[in-house]
Amino acid sequence: MGDSFQEQQPNSQLLRLNTTWFQYIKTITNFHVYDPNSSELKNVLKHLQHGTISEANEMSQGTQIKLLLELPNGFQGLLKPYRVPRNYQTQPDHFYFSDVERHHAEIAAFHVDKVLGFNRVPPLIGRFFNITSDIREKATAELAKTFFISPAHNTCFRGHCSYYCDTSHAVCGKPGDLLEGSVQVLLPRPPEINWQKITHPYRRSYSSIKQVEWESNENFCYEHVMIDEDYHNRLLLDMMDLSAFDFLIGNLDRHHMMRINSLGTNTGLIHLDNGRSFGRYDSDDLSILTPIRQCCFFRYATFMRLYKIYHQGFSKLVADSLDTGETLQTILVEEHLEALDRRLEILFAHLDTCMKKHKVSGVMIDDGIY
Ligand SMILES: Nc1ncnc2c1ncn2[C@@H]1O[C@H](COP(=O)(O)OP(=O)(O)OP(=O)(O)O)[C@@H](O)[C@H]1O
Ligand SMILES: [Mn+2]
Question: What are the positions of the active site (predicted)?
Answer without folding.
Answer: 253
